[in-house]
C-alpha cells in the first residue's frame, strides 16, 4: 500500500489510501452531510489516491461543531440579492431567470434578442 502512513512520517500528516480512513475521521463533505463543520480544527489526516494527485483531508468528528444557520435578516438579504439578479435594468421587468452578466440586460432587451 503506497499511501499507508498512519504515523505521518512519510507525508507529514497521517495518510491513508482511498476508502481506508479509520473511524472517527471524516471528509468535509461527510461532515456537511451530517450537519457538522470542522469548527476551526486543523486537518487530522488525509486520504491519497491516483498516484498522489488526489487528496482529501480528514477531520475529527468528535471535535466538529454543528453547522451554522442563517438568521432571518441574512435570509432576507439573500432573497433581495437573488431578486436583483432577475431585475432587468433596461426594461425594469422581473424575469423568471437570472439576467446574463455579459450583456447586463434580459434576453428581450439585449442586442440581437427577440422583441
Give me some keywords for this one.
115 residues, alpha+beta, 2 domains
Kindly describe this structure.
This protein is an alpha+beta fold. The chain folds into two domains: 15-66, no CATH class; 69-115, no CATH class. Helices cover 18% and strands 18% of the residues. It is built from two helices and six strands. It has helices at residues 28-33, 72-86, and strands at residues 15-17, 25-26, 36-37, 45-49, 54-60, 65-66. A four-stranded mixed sheet has the order 1-4-5-2. The radius of gyration is 23 Å and the shape is elongated. The termini are far apart. The mean pLDDT is 90.
Question: What is this entry, summarized?
Answer:
The chain is α+β, with helices and mostly antiparallel strands. Helices cover 18% and strands 18% of the residues. A hairpin with a 4-residue loop joins strand 4 and strand 5 (54-60).
Write the layout of secondary structure elements.
Blueprint: E1 15-17, E2 25-26, H1 28-33, E3 36-37, E4 45-49, E5 54-60, E6 65-66, H2 72-86
Parallel strand pairs: 1-4
Antiparallel strand pairs: 2-5, 3-6, 4-5
Amino acid at each position: 500500500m503506497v499511501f499507508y502512513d498512519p504515523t505521518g512520517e512519510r507525508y507529514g500528516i497521517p495518510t491513508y489510501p482511498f476508502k481506508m480512513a479509520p473511524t472517527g475521521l471524516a471528509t468535509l463533505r461527510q461532515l456537511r452531510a451530517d450537519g457538522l463543520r470542522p469548527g476551526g480544527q486543523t486537518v487530522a489526516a488525509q486520504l491519497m489516491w491516483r498516484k498522489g494527485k488526489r487528496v482529501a483531508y480528514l477531520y475529527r468528528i468528535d471535535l466538529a461543531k454543528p453547522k451554522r444557520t442563517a438568521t432571518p435578516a441574512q435570509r432576507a438579504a439573500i432573497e433581495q440579492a437573488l431578486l436583483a439578479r432577475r431585475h432587468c435594468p433596461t426594461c425594469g421587468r422581473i424575469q423568471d431567470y437570472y439576467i446574463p452578466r455579459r450583456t447586463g440586460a434580459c434576453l428581450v432587451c439585449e442586442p440581437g434578442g427577440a422583441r
